Automatic annotation (TrEMBL):
Compartment(s) of residence: Periplasm
Organism, as annotated: Polaribacter aquimarinus
Name assigned to this protein: Heparinase
One of the record's GO cellular component terms: periplasmic space
InterPro entries in alphabetical order: Alginate_lyase_dom, Chondroitin_lyas, Hepar_II_III_C
Organism lineage: Bacteria, Pseudomonadati, Bacteroidota, Flavobacteriia, Flavobacteriales
Molecular functions per Gene Ontology: lyase activity
Record keywords: Lyase, Periplasm, Signal
Length: 748
């Protein structure tokens, strides 16, 4: 097989050198290909074929894939289905096949690929000019090939690249036919005919802007390019109109590709919709930016907003766990990872157009494939030449908001423990009502989970593959998250128009001490008259096998309330230090705001100063210790009530309920410890090492917690609740002992 591969690439090199090349490099604007794969890039790639293993293998796989598609013949069905249906899936597959076939034509100089692209495009031209709006009416912006303009835009982003690759293969008459009957009307439909989709700041419009701009670059149509960059001239949308997810279409009147870079990205590169949709939007952001860089270098697009597009890739990679799966913040599907093709694009483009960070090469090596273009070649050469270094994920704070002033996400990493602290803004229409929530991971496995979205993407049997009603009734609600819910009502009353106007604020983030990482944030207005402050620390202490979490939630209110504080643990319950009863009949915990989806599986009351709970998950032990009083209720809940279609995962939580309380303090620790082997049937270090947690002081300015271990060692953690700058000095007397320190916290 190895000999065949070598002969194959030797043949390619000889063939490409002896045949007349249809590559013209007169100028950036007139030469083709020029968009993503460039004329010079084709030459460079052909010169290296057979000597760049990761590129050669990527090319081989794509060739096998497209040869199989060509053998099946062309299918361009009349559109009729939602996501997951046959016509949707076929047109989606076609856009990928067209793009890859165009690239193969350029790299292999084999006319069969150009002919295949041409023949399919002509079938689309023949069909498209006869198409009405898509027959499915669910979307706020219906497409023609697909049920929503978003997918039509996906199609044009990819197909623009295919058209660029065969541009010189086509006659002028053929190009005029395609541009007049297919590409120009297509671009018009997703933009001027659908301003509610196009004229906004959102991941949807990013795809639309990129689609219009990329076909404009290929056609050298300045009007389309300007429409892509700046939006549609003279269009003013109703500022109160909303999309299918409840988000405003265009409240601020901003639109166009540049606005979509300016508004959603923070200076740190965090995208306000969260990593799942950042991953989705990165492809159009980056390929259109690459096209602009290649064709319109004077725009300096990769320098726009201090180079935020390239910064965002590093931010996105840091928003993944040890296995590369993205943290499912907001509407995020679990399991989406940096192995997705969009991240292959992101890594390659970031390396090629950025500072050639060798850490990115380690991600590319794990992905085991590269783009078949100039950037993929650069990565392949970097890997081949031994420049690879590990991509080092450390504790990091990513600000949110266009100016970095709307909260953020803090990721605390200590050995194999990762804690994600979300104190971000609402996150557009895909945001959840989960201020000051967190999730916890060990070695890439969830310990305390964030539910993510309620959707089976592209599975037709589940709501056509689209968002399910449970996404609004459960997944977005506050009680679905590891944070405080007041009076069984979601933050901001579950209203986007309120949530989008408010956000938490960072109090401090400290990670200079390798043994202690701390993040603290505050939020007001989640409930009228209530302020919350949460401080979370991941502490590596010599008395513990692994780093443990100290969680302090301070609530200050102007009246008495009921507070519910769940921890959505994954695994099997092992033990508790409190008695509880199990109901004979399972009933929902409430009737709205997500409570209607929770079964009450167990009920108990705290009878000690510390409530303890332990569980086993994936061969590892975990323990929760929380400071409690005799009036605290402890609930075992399970997701799944009022869910006759089984759209929700049947997962559990332990919930702390505190009634008739005004100001309060929730303090808990979470320990990861020991292991269990089913092979040797041995349990090692299966019990908590914490004897007692105690509130030593809690004032407006300071909260101090003592942590005492089983062997009697006591450590004190003090957090500054008001003045927490690095330069601030603090003096505090506790139990006749004086404590002095500078900075945000004290631990000793």
């Amino acid at each position: 097989m190895l000999k065949i591969s070598k002969l194959f690439f030797v043949f390619l090199i000889i063939f490409s050198c002896t045949k007349n090349e249809k590559i013209d490099v007169v100028s950036n604007e007139s030469s083709h290909p020029k968009l993503i794969l460039t004329a010079q890039g084709v030459r460079d790639i052909r010169a290296q074929l057979g000597n760049i293993p990761i590129f050669d293998n990527s090319l081989k796989r794509v060739k096998e894939e497209i040869d199989a598609e060509i053998a099946l013949g062309i299918d361009v069905p009349i559109p009729k289905d939602y996501s997951g249906g046959y016509t949707h899936a076929r047109h989606k597959r076609n856009w990928v096949v067209l793009q890859k076939a165009g690239v193969l034509y350029q790299i292999l100089d084999d006319e069969k690929y150009a002919k295949y692209v041409k023949d399919m495009l002509m079938k689309y031209e023949e069909m498209y000019k006869t198409l009405p709006l898509h027959p499915k009416t669910r979307s706020y912006a219906r497409g023609k090939l697909f049920w929503q303009c978003l997918n039509d835009s996906n199609w044009l982003v990819y197909v623009s690249q295919a058209y660029d690759c065969i541009y010189n293969y086509l006659s002028e008459e053929e190009r005029n036919k395609l541009e007049t009957n297919l590409f120009r009307p297509f671009a018009d439909h997703i933009s001027v005919d659908s301003p509610q989709f196009y004229q906004r700041v959102h991941n949807h419009s990013t795809w639309g802007n990129a689609a219009v701009g990329m076909i404009g670059l290929v056609m050298n149509d300045q009007e389309l390019i300007d429409r892509a960059l700046y939006g549609i001239k003279g269009v003013n949308l109703d500022k109160k109109a909303k999309d299918d997810d409840g988000g405003y279409l265009n409240k601020d009147g901003k639109a166009g590709f540049l606005a979509n870079i300016e508004e959603p990205f923070s200076p740190d590169g965090y995208y306000n919709e969260g990593p799942y949709y950042q991953r989705y939007a990165m492809y159009p952001f980056l390929v259109f930016a690459e096209g602009l860089h290649n064709v319109k270098p004077e725009l300096k697009i990769f320098e726009y907003k201090n180079g935020v597009l390239l910064k965002s890739i590093k931010a996105l990679l840091n928003l993944s766990d040890a296995d590369g799966d993205f943290f499912p913040l907001n509407d995020g599907q679990k399991g989406m990872s940096y192995y997705n093709d969009a991240l292959v694009t992101a890594v390659d483009i970031s390396y090629h157009f950025g500072k050639q960070d060798p850490g990115l090469l380690s991600i590319a090596a794990k992905q085991n494939k590269v783009l078949l273009d100039d950037s993929g070649l650069a990565v392949a050469l970097g890997v081949k030449n031994g420049k690879t270094k590990p991509f080092d994920k450390k504790s990091i704070n990513l600000s949110d908001g266009s100016k970095g002033k709307q909260g953020g996400v803090g990721i605390l990493r200590n050995e194999n423990i990762e804690l994600v602290f979300k104190y971000a803004s609402q996150g557009s229409s895909h945001g959840h009502y989960d201020k000051l929530s967190f999730s916890l991971y060990e070695k890439g496995e969830e310990v305390i989970q964030d539910y993510g979205l309620a959707r089976f993407v592209n599975i037709e049997q589940k709501g056509g593959g689209n968002y399910l009603k449970e996404n609004k009734t459960w997944a977005k609600q506050t009680i679905a998250h590891n944070t405080v819910t007041q009076n069984e009502t979601s933050h901001y009353n579950g209203k986007y128009e309120i949530g989008s106007q408010n956000h938490p604020d960072l109090h401090y983030f400290s990670f200079t001490n390798k043994n202690i990482q701390v993040s603290s944030a505050k939020v007001a207005k989640t409930y009228p008259g209530t302020d919350m402050q949460r401080t979370i620390a991941v502490i590596k202490d010599e008395g513990f096998e692994k780093p443990y979490v100290l969680d302090i939630m301070k609530v200050v209110a102007n009246k008495s309330n009921q507070y519910d504080f769940p921890y959505y643990f994954l695994g099997q319950v092992l033990s508790t230090n409190f008695k509880y009863s199990i109901p004979e009949i399972l009933k929902p915990l409430g009737n709205k705001n997500g409570y209607q989806h929770l079964y009450l599986e167990g009920f108990g009351k705290s009878n000690k100063d510390n409530t303890k709970f332990s569980w086993l998950n994936n061969g590892k032990f975990y323990s929760l210790t929380t400071i409690s009083n005799t009036n605290d209720e402890i609930l075992f809940t399970r997701i799944g009530a009022n869910d006759p279609d089984f759209n929700l995962r049947r997962e559990a939580a332990i919930m702390l309920r505190r009634k008739n309380t005004k100001n309060t303090l929730f303090v808990s620790s979470i320990e990861a410890h020991g292991s269990y082997s089913p092979v040797s049937e041995s349990a090692v270090n299966s019990k908590s090492n914490i004897k007692e947690l105690k509130v030593v002081i809690d004032t407006l300015d300071y909260t101090a917690i003592s942590i005492t271990t089983l062997n009697g060692d006591t450590k004190l953690f003090i957090t500054a609740n008001t003045e927490a700058s690095k330069e601030a000095t603090h003096k505090l007397t506790i139990n006749n002992e004086n404590y002095e320190w500078s900075g945000s916290y004290y631990f000793k």
